[in-house]
Structures are given as C-alpha cells and as structure tokens.
Specification:
Blueprint: H1 13-16, E1 63-71, H2 82-91, E2 93-101, H3 105-114, E3 121-125, H4 131-134, H5 150-158, H6 162-166, E4 178-181, E5 191-195, H7 196-201, H8 210-223, H9 242-248, E6 264-267, E7 272-275, H10 280-294, H11 307-315, E8 321-324, H12 328-338, E9 346-348, E10 359-360, E11 366-372, H13 382-394, H14 396-404, E12 411-414, E13 417-420, E14 424-425, E15 435-436, H15 456-460, H16 465-477, E16 479-480, H17 491-517, H18 525-534, H19 537-547
Parallel strand pairs: 1-2, 10-16, 14-15
Antiparallel strand pairs: 3-11, 4-11, 5-8, 5-9, 6-7, 12-13
C-alpha cells in the first residue's frame, strides 16, 4: 500500500479512538490478579462442549438472552418472524427483547448502559460507539473472551484482520466492542448518481477527478438549459451534504461529513494529528463545493433540504446529478418510472480523485458489531451466549442464515448461486414479489445480519451487478489509506476531549455550510482558524496527540 501525498487521514471516529493490541485473544490478568477471560465452568449451562469453527450451535437446554433490539421503521418488529422461530427450534434460543425505535436508539442505549440496566447483547454498534461507556465499567471487555469464539478468531487470522481488530483497543489495553468483519475491502457505498443519458448526449465519459466533474456539470448545464441546477444533493439533516463531503474528503486529504468523527486528520510527514476543520486540506474541500454553488452548478438548497425534496428534484428533471448509493439508485429509477419517464438512464460514478490523490478511507473491512453488558459475564449461560454470538455473526452458516434465511423457504440454490424464491423480494431481487425478506421474515435485519455479510461470496451475493461493478472499479483505481495511530483517552481525558469535540464540530459544520453557500467568503479562512483556536482547537489536538503517543 502506498501513501504518496503529504497528508494521510483518519477517516472515522473509531480510528481516532483506538490503539494497537498485542493479540486478538486478549489474555493477561485483571487488576486483582485473576486470569482475564476465566469462566467458572461448573456454573455454566447450555453450552456445547465440542463447539469449534464450523460447528452449528445448538444450546443443550433452552436459553433466553437479553437483547437490545433496534426497531427499524422499514421492517417493524414482529414476534412471530420466521427468523425467531428457527432460532428457537434449531438453536434452542429465545430473547428477552428491549425494543427501541431507531430514532431513539442512541439515547436509550446510553441511558440503559449508564444505569447498569443494559441487556446482555447490544447489536448495531459502530466502532467508536463504545468509548464513552468504557470508564464506567458497564461494558464487558470482550477481548478477554474471544478465546471462546473460534469462528471469529479463525476469520481474523485467515483474512489478516488483526490491524482492524486492534483498532478497537481502549486505554486499558482491552476492547469492548467486537466489529463485524469483511473478507475483502468494501469501499464506501456513497457517491454521485448522474443522468447517464445526458452525459452520453454531451459525449462525456465519467470524470476521473472532482475538477473534471465540475467542468462536466458546466457542460451539462449548457446543453440542458431546462435544468434548475446540474446537481442537487441530500443527506443534510445533521450537517451539510454529509455523504458527499465524506466520500470526497480522502481525496482532498481530510475528513468531513459522516466521516468527520473526532475531527482529526493524520499528517503523515509530521507524524501527528491536526484538527481537520482548520486545515488547508479542509479549506480546499470546502472551497471546491463553494465554487460549485457560486458557479450555479450545485443547488444551494442541497445543504438543508429534506431527502424527499432532493429526490423529487432529480426525478422531475430539475437536476442531473445527486448523491446516491447502490440502494438509493433503485429508488431514483422507481421515481422516474412512476412519472412515466422511460428515457432517463442513471449511473453511479466511481468517486473522483482529488488534489491529495485517489483513496478510500482506511478500516473498510470493519462493520457494525456488538457490545455486551458487564453483567453478562455473571450469567450461568455466558459461555453459551458467546458460542451463539460466534455462530450467528461470524460462522459462514450463521451469516448466510441471518442474511438469506432458510433454503427451501426463502431461497434456493442455482449451482453456487443463491436465488430468492419467487414470492420473496429484497432490493432489486425479484422486484414486485409480495413478500419482503426483512419485514415479513426478519432476515437481512441489521440486528442479526452484519450488513452484506462477511465472506466475499456472501458480501456480493445480493448486490446488483451494478453495485459489484462499482466496488470493483473503486478497488481497481483507489488505494486504501492505512489506519493511523489510535487515540486512547483515560476517563478524565475522555470527558474533557468530548466537551471540546462537540463545540469544535458544531462550529465546523456551521462554518462549512456558510462557506459553501457563500454566506462567508473563503477569503475569511484565516479568521475562521483563529475562531477555532479561540475555542480550544490546539489544546484539543495536543491532548489527542498525547493520547496517541505522538508529539508535535
């Protein structure tokens, strides 16, 4: 892997919150001298004595695990879902659910953990989510117990994922969140969707760089004067065009939008962290999009509008480009079909390169995973719970079950290929079938299914040919950034850094919108940096560098 530019960046909050582990399996001793990860076997029930990688988990007696369930509005919880019936019949497992609506999940989870009332298993946890709870002692140091999870250990070793797992370690040398994992690099799915028919009419190829993209938007506007703007955008609820800024940021040498995390970018040459929001690289990124707005190429309402409004503008022909991913593009096509437009063709752009190079963020083989309450280790079914989690989330059999369901019920095999049965649909598969794999059966549900899966085969098995081609193109032309040194705060530092982080990020997102919209001139950048300094930016960066073990 090469790093040919001056600034290599940290692309997520998780990266900036973690340090390197000596070994995946934990080990060592607790403060009182007891062996870390030791389980009193005489107290345990329901576990399998012969459980190993590839073994189907079945509890030796009925067990019930506490589980924090994220109730998604797209597939509302149903207690009679087939996935739950099969887990009870085949794995001898049921759940004591703490059901929480999606929109309340973060707040409710925080309250449960802080009060010591969190369920044993907490899925849909993203790298970095755990850090704020570590010092309180309410979370299980899962690194002490992965020795009982043979499927997880096998994949980490065979796929060379140690660095990805290492990135979860906290200041005490343990990790408290176990991520979902991918066999192959999965680039960020967010990019730009364009009206391919308009690009073809103008004789344009897909742009290789963001500058070339701007030139093409200008041509599209000239060729199609009926457009309000050649580009609009979406995903601006919590900050301006967060998905697009996040996707573009690595190629400008910084972090932004959804990838802003702690606001730290890594200076490869100097070997230190810098605050992204006040950096030259962030200025270049913001200046680029400010130029699009100033030149009438980007709809200024994109920075504040609702997603539905953005989609309507695109489908009605008011814009020719919009933020997208491999699922949303299907919604765009449906929207065109609903208004009877059968001429529009839509395509995904490979994320263009930028002044810093052609990169994707590091750590892309990690996925949302799980946290566990500290009380779980006191249960008489603790070992069985570890075995069940290892089977469902990390074994090939469990991963396929959670995603595709049961052969003969929800899918069949056509040679090596899985095919949904005729009356079941998901995404672009079997479009129009009466039953949905997630809402009617409970499968492909983020609570039990780690995104697209784990193995390369399973990762790609439900993706459209278009999505697979996008991933292949991204991997073919882009380098994955290395994960920089991790930042591990102690309890006091975490509290101090957290307060500053919130203040600095709020200021940055507000200023980002102002600069892009032209409400604040880019000539005012030095004044903006002074404002960040006045809000404690240097103190924040110094604390992060000290926690990462580096100095300026």
């Amino acid at each position: 892997m090469r790093i040919t530019r001056n600034k290599a960046v940290a692309a997520s909050a998780a990266t900036a919150l973690t340090v390197t582990l000596a070994a995946c399996g934990g080990g060592g001793t607790d403060d009182d001298g007891a062996a870390a990860g030791e389980i009193d076997m005489e107290s345990q029930i329901g576990y399998m004595e012969d459980f190993e990688a590839g073994t189907t988990f079945t509890a030796t007696e009925p067990l019930q695990f506490g589980l924090l369930y994220r109730d998604h509005p797209n597939y509302p919880f149903q207690e009679d879902w087939p996935i739950l019936q099969h887990l009870e019949e085949n794995q001898n497992v049921t759940f004591d659910f703490e059901n929480v609506p999606l929109e309340d999940m973060q707040q409710r989870r925080s309250v449960l953990i802080s009060s010591g009332e969190a369920p044993e298993i907490m899925p849909v946890t993203y790298p970095g989510d755990e850090s704020q709870f570590v010092s309180g002692g309410a979370l299980l140091p899962i690194s002490d117990y992965v020795q009982y999870m043979p499927n997880f250990q096998q994949k980490v070793e065979e796929w060379g994922l140690q660095a990805e797992i290492d990135a979860q370690k906290q200041e005490d040398g343990k990790y408290y969140m176990i991520p979902g994992i991918h066999e192959v690099t999965i680039p960020g799915a967010y990019t730009i969707a364009i009206r391919q028919d308009l690009w073809d009419d103008a004789g344009l190829e897909h742009p290789a760089t963001w500058d070339e993209f701007a030139e093409q938007l200008e041509i599209i506007q000239e060729e199609n004067p009926e457009l309000d703007y050649p580009m609009t955008d979406r995903w601006s609820i919590n900050g301006p065009i967060e998905a697009t800024l996040s996707a573009a940021a690595p190629n400008f040498g910084t972090v932004a939008g959804w990838g802003y995390g702690l606001g730290l970018q890594w200076n490869q040459d100097e070997g230190v962290y810098e605050y992204a929001g006040g950096s030259d690289e962030y200025r270049d990124l913001v200046g680029y999009f400010a130029g699009l707005v100033a030149d009438g190429l980007l709809d200024p309402e994109a920075l504040t509008q609702e997603d539905d409004q953005a989609e309507q503008k695109f489908a009605s022909g008011q814009a020719a480009a919009i933020g997208s991913n491999d699922q949303v593009i299907l919604e765009y096509r449906d929207a065109f079909a609903e208004i009877g437009d059968d001429t529009a063709e839509i395509a995904l752009l490979t994320v263009p390169g930028g002044p810093a190079g052609d990169y994707i963020a590091g750590g892309t083989r990690r996925e949302s995973g799980l946290m566990f309450s500290a009380q779980a280790a006191e249960s008489d079914h603790f070992l069985a719970m570890l075995q069940f989690v290892d089977w469902l989330y990390y074994s090939d059999e469990g991963l396929e079950f959670a995603k595709w369901g049961v052969e003969g019920e929800t899918f069949e095999r056509d040679g090596d290929k899985r095919v949904l049965v005729d009356d079941v649909t998901w995404g672009a598969l079997n479009a129009g079938a009466p039953k949905l794999l997630n809402s009617d059966f409970g499968y492909y549900n983020g609570v039990w299914s780690l995104a697209h899966g784990s193995t390369e085969d399973l990762d790609m098995s439900m993706r459209s040919d278009e999505a697979v081609e996008y991933i292949d193109n991204m991997n073919a032309v882009k380098e994955e950034l290395e994960i920089p040194p991790a930042v591990a705060y102690d309890e006091i530092e975490q509290e101090q850094a957290g307060l500053q982080q919130t203040t600095l990020q709020d200021m940055t997102f507000q200023a980002t919108a102002q600069f892009i919209l032209g409400d604040r001139s880019m000539d005012d950048w030095d004044t903006w940096v002074s404002e960040l300094e006045g809000a404690g930016m240097q103190e924040y960066v110094d604390r992060a560098n000290a926690a990462a073990g580096v100095t300026e």
